[in-house]
Design brief:
mainly beta, Trimer_LpxA-like_sf, Mannose-1-phosphate guanylyltransferase, GMPPB_C, 16 strands, Mannose-1P_guanyltransferase, single chain, six-stranded mixed β-sheet, UDP N-Acetylglucosamine Acyltransferase, domain 1
């Protein structure tokens, strides 16, 4: 049974805004931001850490999960104490004429280059699993930790 949804004010260092139709159930224990976008009817449980990520409609992030540099698909469940993390590809702010380096998806050995993690729709990430720099296609149930993979 899913909880009733409500709006809640989310305070970030630079701005405050209302999260419409999002359920934050952790009595203020969630740590959201910076750069977080949450879709309608998403459920964020207590102790969750979200940074530089997008959580799409009807996703559920369970207690104490951590999502960094990731896109979480529709109707996806991230289990308790799971970690979904990608590698940021930010330009170097210390260089005067910096630009964003565009890396190919695969390196010379055919391995996936580190990038953000993308979890497709209707995916279930079990508790205490780490998903690092992966692309997970829709309708998958992961059973173990994964690193630098495309999960078909």
């Amino acid at each position: 049974m899913r909880p009733k949804f409500k709006s809640r004010i989310c305070t970030n260092e630079s701005e405050t805004r209302v999260l419409p139709s999002v359920w934050l159930s952790g009595r203020g224990e969630e740590f959201l931001g910076p750069n977080v976008s949450i879709g309608e009817r998403a459920v964020i449980r207590g102790g969750v850490r979200l940074r530089d990520c997008i959580v799409l409609r009807d996703a559920e992030i369970r207690a104490h999960a951590c999502c960094l540099n990731a896109v979480i698909g529709w109707n996806t469940i991230i289990g308790e104490w799971a970690r979904v993390e990608g590698t940021p590809n930010d330009p170097n702010p210390n260089k005067p004429f910096t630009k964003l380096d565009v890396l190919p998806v695969f390196n010379a050995k055919g391995q996936l280059n580190p990038s953000i993690t993308v979890i497709g729709s209707n995916v279930e990430v079990p508790p205490e699993v780490i998903v690092l720099n992966c692309i997970v296609l829709p309708h998958k149930e992961l059973s173990h930790s994964s690193k630098n993979q495309i999960i078909l």
